[in-house]
Amino acid sequence: MAEAVTRTLPAQFIEDLGKDYGKQISALTSLPVDTSQFAPQVAAQDQLQTAAYNQATDAATGLGSFQPFLTKASTAADAATGLTGTGAGTGAGSIQSYMSPYQSQVIDTALSEFDRQAQSQKASQSAQALGIPGAFGGGREGVLQAQYQSDSDRNRAALQAGYLQQGFQQAQAARQQDFKNQQGIATQQATLGGGMQNLAQQQIKGLGSLGGIQQSQSQAVLDAQRQANQTAAYEPYQRLGTYGSGVAQLISGYPGQSQITQTPNASALQTALGVGTGLAGIYGGLTGNNPFKAVGSALGIR
């Protein structure tokens, strides 16, 4: 008897959409995706960062622009430590450098004036001794003159020593003041050097911060571009996925169509031939001969 086969098929337009979807997804997935278009990238250092690095390197190796201040400070400190002036630090040579160049002229002028007054007074004393009745005799006058000369020489030496002592004290004070000045210069130079170093550090820090901001901005641009390239590369897949989801929903939600296929019964001749062919095959397999050779030849069986 005839066999009936029933199949539920989607609507024709849905079947057409399914076939179209299959063709598109086969074609799309056969093409490789160029992943280099959205490979991760790292933004290069900004020019400000490079400048900060170079300045930091210079500061680490040569102390940069404040090195001259430190050199001057060291020189001034050495000068102050060893005292100033020529000769030994505590000797007369060092003091001599601070002596007034006019001191000897002042002393010579003062002593000359002293000698002149002493001679004038000595002459006046001799005249008085000779002009007064009953004055001392020659021997007595000589003793008086000798005593006067001794006192005059002593006063002259004291005057000279006083001038020398005054000059020495002034030179000593000048040297001490110079020593303090040198120390002050050394401190000032060191302070200036430290100030320049702080300024350089602040500048390096500022350049590094600004450069970091610029680098972050550049990195954000690269990341955004990479994301855009990735989105563009996978956009066909997303679009096709949306297409496939719609087709699947149509298949599951749209009522299908039933199709019945019937297989008709075989005719008597077909049945007989089928039985004969089967028997002949069995017999031939056992004996090697085909008892229905004539029929088989007619039907194309060998």
Please tell me about this protein's structure:
This protein is mainly α and 302 residues long. It folds into 2 domains: 47-251, no CATH class; 266-302, no CATH class. The chain contains 8 helices and 2 strands. Strands 1-2 form a two-stranded antiparallel sheet. The longest helix is centred in the middle third of the chain and has 116 residues, at 138-253. It starts with a strand and ends with a helix.
Quick structural overview:
The protein has eight helices and two strands, in the order E-H-H-H-H-H-H-E-H-H.
**Main beta sheet: strand number and arrangement?**
2 strands, antiparallel
Q: How many domain units?
A: 2
Order of helices and strands: EHHHHHHEHH
- Classification by helices and strands: mainly alpha
Low-confidence stretches: 86-93, 291-302
- Please state the average pLDDT score: 73
Radius of gyration: 64 Å
The rounded distance between the terminal residues' Cα atoms is 31 Å
User: β content, as a range?
Assistant: under 5%
| Proportion in helices | over 70%
What is the strand tally? Answer: 2
Number of helices, counting only DSSP H or I runs of 4 residues or more: 8
* Gross morphology: rod-shaped
Sequence of strands across the biggest β-sheet: 1-2
